[in-house]
Amino acid sequence: MPLSLHNTLTRKKEVFAPIDAKKVRMYVCGPTVYDFAHIGNARPVIVFDVLYRLLRHVYGEAHVRYVRNITDVDDKINAAAKANGENIRDLTERTAKEFHADTKALLCLEPDVEPRATEHIAEMIAMIERLIASGHAYEAEKHVLFSVQADKDYGKLSHRNRDEMIAGARVEVAPYKRDAADFVLWKPSPDDLPGWDSPWGRGRPGWHIECSAMSEKHLGPSFDIHGGGLDLIFPHHENEIAQSECAHGGAPFARYWLHNGFLMVEGAKMSKSEGNFRTIRDVLGEAPGEAARFAMLMGHYRDPLDWTSERLMQAIYGLDRFYMALRGIDAAPAAIPVRVLEALDDDLNTPLAIARLYELLGELNTANTTADKARWAGELRAGGLLLGLLQQDSEAWLQGETIDPNEISDAVVKRLEERDWIDEQIRLRLAARQTKNFAEADRIRTDLALKGIILEDGPKGTTWRRAG
Ligand code: AMP
Ligand code: ZN
Predict the structure, then answer these.
(1) Domain check: are 152 and 191 in the same one?
(2) Whole domain around residue 439: which residue ranges?
(3) Which residue owns the Cα nearest ligand 1 atom 1?
(4) pLDDT, tens digit, 9 for 90 and up, residues 298-326
């Protein structure tokens, strides 16, 4: 079955055919780095990581190029730095680092290129100059604006009419604009804000031009897939198309536009005032990164997803079952099972792919011979690989040691300290038994059980796991 993807541009599911199968290219809008990323931001990161893995499987690792930018110049950044009393550069560096720790904990592969907006100012200025020269942009009072009327295709992604666009964009109706729908490519910066010299004076870029310039630099004028959350369709992606296609003499920009649905928390739109705002870091304090990833992929990427503690528990419980079944089995090397591949080929149907992993789990649990067990365990591991799941050592999962201790939150540090404490309890219990103090040994075992830690005595000594 060929890979099919839902394309926002045509509003249809289409068979995916890359421009050049030796160079499959994908751009995804990355974070604006002013604060910890929230669990909604994790959704595109995880969803497009699965697509990246799938493309690498289909076309070969050397033939896929994934670019995800970092927006490190933005008014929200300026405002946050001011509120924190922090240097802007320190804030963006610190936040980008935290974002990387989060994506690593969520078991995402790194993109091939992660361009930063502030390192592409010259390319943005060059693109703006081309837009002015071709009559698609104009300078007014130290601003440069894109002229929406000069682009007959404007609105083709969001399928909106002009009034809806003006209302949706909530653009400032500044007196220097020729048309209320025109948007900023460049704006002046006062001395106390980041700014760069340009033909229009010291200033900084608008948000949309950043992605047009960075995608052009790293993927060329036309490429295959452009992704991001649903909220970016308008105005951000509509404006990226307008800028890029007008700067490239009408050459088509991205061919397939993919958008993930929104994530809510406990049934409500996530917001600080609702009290249901959750950073990725908060979630990693509640559960291992693999469980958060699993919970995210339990929903189809285009559907809304309700992030609840029940969903997270279900993911932890599911992974417990998988890793318990894989425990102590030397998995035979296996190709990715067709049933898992087919599910993902159908517009990244991750809930179906997970259902197929459960089928493989059933096979593994009912297998009678060592050879059969090794075979099903191998298929399960290989099927998990495309989803970025089930790649850990079973014991590591069952003990909850899942993240690099150098890059984690206090809550996870506590978990690791707890692990040392458990090891110490096991040693004390052994010592008690050796001196025939069975009452003390039993007390230690019960004490651990009350904390959800189960001890198992085996030929190689005592191991432990969390109660499932
Ligand atoms: P931002 O840093 O706000 O530009 O967002 C980064 C990415 O996260 C974009 O692709 C957004 O569409 C996406 N995003 C933001 N909030 C949510 C949410 N609640 N659910 C799903 N995706 C989101
Ligand atoms: Zn973008």
Answers:
(1) yes
(2) 410-466
(3) 31
(4) 999 999 999 999 999 999 999 999 999 99
